[in-house]
Design a protein that fits this description.
Rossmann fold; alpha/beta
Length: 316
């Protein structure tokens, strides 16, 4: 996966996705004391960046292969993306989801036409994949697939086309495929850009892997940022993080929710904690920026239920 593959992905998926806006935020610029821009990827189809990778994967295989159907694993946005993409391309889809998945994610996945196979844990879901693959289904991995990563990387191309003067990017990390694709695209165009990854306590697989020097399996995902909840990163995504990231900032759930509320009240946009954590990280990094910095925060997803929103507001 390189810049060529990402540019090919951009051409392949452009008629199927939205080119989301990159906008300057006066509010966030004053809040951080620098120039802040927001990539509103939460307005992407299905509410997150995940359709980019899913479309690139399925459009890269033959119609004959698609007839065998697909299978995916997700406790969040990847599930909805695979279901939606499969529906658009007339492909039968099964999505394995852990029992802890919020109800709104399960219902949305079903409404897009996929069959949902609920498993006790995300680990159990991964263990069952082989059964579906043995039936001939194509496995669309949530992050550890070069075609999926190249699709996600198209967002990085859009940032550089819309704001060539970008100096810093703050991006959320789950399994690392999103960060890997975006950072590969951005660094190929402008090597001097600084990219900071963000995780939350209890969903910090990349941070732990960077410290250990190899992927580490988390015993459980305890963060409320469920869409960051990969049980581990992969050797491939770890290598990309080691190559491209300045550092990974790990914020608390409370910090992510505090900024979620600020974004909702001031920008009038409802993000997931997995997106609002980028603002929490930016506050931690505030001293690294100056009046000439052009910071891009990627609001990667907005599929938060009203029930969870009310719970978070009451708890924090």
């Amino acid at each position: 996966m390189d810049i060529t593959a990402i540019k090919q992905a951009q051409q392949r998926i452009k008629n199927y996705i939205r080119r989301t806006t990159l906008e300057h935020s006066e509010t966030l610029s004053k809040y951080l004391g620098t120039n802040v821009f927001v990539k509103f990827e939460l307005f992407q189809k299905t509410g997150s960046f995940k359709v980019r990778g899913a479309f690139n994967k399925l459009l890269s295989v033959s119609p004959e292969e698609r007839k065998r159907g697909v299978v995916a694993i997700s406790g969040g946005n990847h599930a909805q993306a695979v279901a939606y993409v499969s529906n658009v391309l007339d492909v039968d889809a099964v999505v394995l989801m852990p029992g802890s998945t919020p109800h709104n994610y399960i219902e949305a996945t079903k409404n897009y036409g996929a069959t949902v196979d609920l498993q006790p844990t995300i680990k159990d879901a991964f263990n069952k994949i082989k059964e579906y693959e043995s039936d001939g289904r194509i496995f669309i991995h949530p992050f550890d697939d070069p075609l999926v990563m190249a699709g996600q990387g198209t967002l990085g191309l859009e940032i550089m086309e819309d704001l060539p003067g970008t100096t810093d990017i703050i991006i959320s990390i789950g399994g690392g495929g999103f960060e890997g694709g975006v950072s590969t695209a951005v660094k190929a165009i402008k090597p001097g850009i600084k990219i900071f990854g963000v995780e939350t306590v209890g969903a910090d697989a990349m941070s732990q892997a960077l410290k250990a020097g190899h992927p580490v399996e988390l015993p459980a995902i305890t963060s409320i940022a469920k869409t960051l909840g990969a049980p581990s990163v992969s050797p491939q995504t770890l290598a990309l993080a080691q190559e491209h990231l300045e550092e990974v900032i790990v914020v608390t759930d409370d910090e992510a929710v505090k900024e979620l509320k600020f974004i909702l009240e001031r920008l009038k946009v409802l993000t997931e904690p997995a997106a609002s954590c980028t603002l929490a990280a930016a506050l931690r990094l505030k001293d690294k920026f100056n009046k000439d910095s052009n910071i891009v925060l990627i609001f990667c997803g907005g599929n938060l239920s009203v029930t969870d929103l009310c719970k978070y507001v009451d708890d924090v």
